[in-house]
Structures are given as C-alpha cells and as structure tokens.
Amino acid sequence: MKALFKYLDEIPETVIFLISVTLVILLGIIDYLTGYEIAFSIFYLQPVSLVAWFGKKSYAVIICILSAITWLLADIYAGNTYSNSFIPVWNASIRLGFFLITAFSLTEIKRLLNTEQTFARIDFLTGVTNRRAFYELADIEIKRAARFNRPFTFAYIDIDNFKKVNDMCGHIQGDNLLQLVAKTIKDNTRSIDIISRIGGDEFAVLFPETNEANAKSVINKVQKSLLGVVQNNNWPVTFSIGAVTCYKPYDLDELMKEADDLMCAVKQSGKNRVEYKIHNTQ
C-alpha cells in the first residue's frame, strides 16, 4: 500500500484528474446497468477520494459535481421514479454535499500530514534539516556516490564561544546567531548540498560531487562569510571546522566521527581554523 501511494504521488495531477473522470463515467455506466434497486453509492467515493488526496482541490470539486450528476442520471435512466420531481434534485444536492465534505476533509488531512512531515524533518529555529533528516538524506547521497564512484565531502562546523553570546547578549541573540549561521551557509553553498543543524551550535554539510580541492575552496568561502557576518554583528565567536573528503564508500557514523574529531582538534589547538582529511584516496 505504501508503494502504491508513493507511485500515485509521482503521477501528475492532471493525469489523476483524467483517471478520476474515467472512473466516474465507468461507475455511471455500471450503476445504470445494475439498476436503481442495487446500491452503488459508496463506489463514487473512490474517484472523489483519489483526486482529493493526489490532485488539486479545484479538480476535486469538479469530480464531486460530476459524480453527483452521473449518479443522478444513472438513477433516472435506470428507471427509478419519484413521487415529486424535486426529490431527485434534492438527493443530488445531498450527495454533492457529502462528496464535497469528504473531498475537503481529505484535502485538509493531507495538508496537515504534509506539514507535520515537513516539520519533523526541519529544525524549527534555523529552517535547515534536523539530525534525523540529515542522516536519511546523507545516507542516500553516500550510496549514490558509491554506485557511481563519485567523491563527496562532509564538513562539521562548530561555533566557538557560542555560550558567551547567550551569557552576554541573551538567548534571543543566540537564536539570531544560529539563524544567521544557517542562512549564511545556505547562501554560500549549492542547492544540492545537504545542510543540517545537528546539535545546539553544531552544523553539518554534505557536499556531493566534491573533491578535496573544491571542498577547500567552498568551505574556506563559507568560513570567511561566517566570520564577516559575526563581526558585523559584534558577536565574539569564530568557527572551527573539520572536513573529510571520500572517494569510496564510507559509513556515515564513522564519517561524522572523523570530521568531529578533526573539529575538536581545531578547537583544542586555538580554534577558528579548518582541518581537512582525505579518506580512501584513489
């Protein structure tokens, strides 16, 4: 079922709409052929639910109207008679209302579910991915790099003396610093680079398709930009960074530990520096 939902999510909304229209027409034909005495109403919920979950809200409204009309026509042409000509119109209106309630409810449920899934993967303060999402995305990228024999670089960034900002300037300024650090890293990296806040004042970046020369260039650029930002805001912090470039498959936990060790070595030797390591060189 999960695989089916994933497959349907990848289908264009217009195609979902056309599939739903086709289903409504087929249901109407079957409804007509089986006669008005056999209940067929629940099956009209299938195309309504399909387009409400996987398509546009406007498409869902159209399918709701089409389903109500098709149901009414199938009922009438199947030979059903009413004591008052207003009754079929009333029934169609009630059915339409039921379809619309179902469609709008499903649309809202999916919106809330998507929002929850997004927040579950995003660090609420900085807007970059959280540790959990980073592990998922980085694992995928490392496996891809191994499959195509491509290099990648992992960088571990720590804010030196971050506690001083909280103690001297307050936690609001500390939050502002974290937000600005995340923004600066994003502004100086590519869209394919995976950025994460993995701890209180620690950030990680995975650079796909990046060898050691390119890694040094971009990481030095990031550090220089970060230093410029904090100096402009008079924040008494610097940045210690450990970076590991890999040319062959490597365990993510081990990779993070190596980069963390490099970063810790920088902090112990005076801070505000970048330490590089090449792993599994070709």
Topology:
Blueprint: H1 2-9, H2 13-34, H3 45-54, H4 57-77, H5 86-121, H6 131-148, E1 152-160, H7 162-169, H8 171-187, E2 194-197, E3 202-208, H9 212-232, E4 238-246, H10 252-268, E5 274-279
Helix pairs in contact: 2-3, 2-4, 3-4, 3-5, 4-5, 7-8, 8-9
Task: List its traits.
single chain; 282 residues; alpha+beta; Alpha-Beta Plaits; five-stranded mixed β-sheet; 5 strands; elongated
How is this structure best described in words?
With 282 residues, the protein is α+β, with helices and mostly antiparallel strands. It folds into 2 domains: 2-121, no CATH class; 131-279, Alpha-Beta Plaits (2-Layer Sandwich), CATH 3.30.70.270. It is built from 10 helices and 5 strands; from the N terminus they run ααααααβααββαβαβ. It has helices spanning 2-9, 13-34, 45-54, 57-77, 86-121, 131-148, 162-169, 171-187, 212-232, 252-268; strands at residues 152-160, 194-197, 202-208, 238-246, 274-279. The chain has a 5-stranded mixed β-sheet, sandwiched between helices. The longest helix is centred in the middle third of the chain and has 36 residues, at 86-121. The chain is elongated and about 90 Å long.
Radius of gyration: 29 Å
DSSP helix fraction: 55-70%
Distance between the termini: 43 Å
Per CATH, the architecture of the largest domain is 2-Layer Sandwich
Output the CATH topology of the largest domain.
Alpha-Beta Plaits
The helix tally amounts to: 10
Major sheet strand order: 2-3-1-4-5
Structural class: alpha+beta
Number of domains: 2
Q: What is the class of the largest domain in the CATH system?
A: Alpha Beta
Count of β-strands: 5
Low-confidence stretches: none
Mean pLDDT: 90
> At the fourth CATH level, what is the homologous superfamily of the largest domain?
Reverse transcriptase/Diguanylate cyclase domain
- H-E order: HHHHHHEHHEEHEHE
Strand content: 5-15%
Largest sheet: 5 strands, mixed
Quaternary organisation = single chain
Shape: elongated
